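Hello support,

Our group uses your service weekly, and this is the first time we've seen a run hang past the timeout. The protein is DUF177 domain-containing protein. I'm not sure whether the cause is the sequence or the server load. Input pasted verbatim:
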Amino acid sequence: MLKYNFSDLIRYENQFTSVEQDIDLTDVLKERTKNMIEEAKHVQVTGELINDQPFVISRLHVKVDLVVLSTRSLTPIRYPLSFSFDEAYTDTKPREEDFDLYGTIIEVENDKVELQKAIEDNIILNLPTKILTEEEKQNDEMPSGNTWQVMSEEDYFEQKEKTKTSPFAKLGDLLEDNDDKK
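Update from on-call engineer: The timeout came from a worker crash unrelated to the input. Re-ran successfully.
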């Protein structure tokens, strides 16, 4: 699978190893995201591992069609993702200036470079915080019940501002003063 021996990758200078794999991450991503990702079957990973001693640099491109839940209604939605990321792996303690050069540096344990965890992490990191169905995007209506309603942050602050400008807002200040005197 997506596991490589660090010692094999770093053995020859300026060597690179091609990575091309199609994997199913459904079960692991369902568990890691508490079922927000329903499906991640055909995760296509392409790229290369490049020997840049004392580092091995992974340059990977990930393409996946996810089924995720709407953040508003929990309705399943097909959500395609395509992104690239780089990481550096080393078996020595990295110096501060190495982080400026490589960004993410992972210290290798037991001579293993495991790419799957990095791929999982980057799929999760590339998901937006707000995912809506087409209908929800068009409608822009928030869910509500008899005694509750979900509102956007903008609506919340707008309502809060209206409350402050109402004639009764000053009475609230009086009540706060009385609580302080007790």
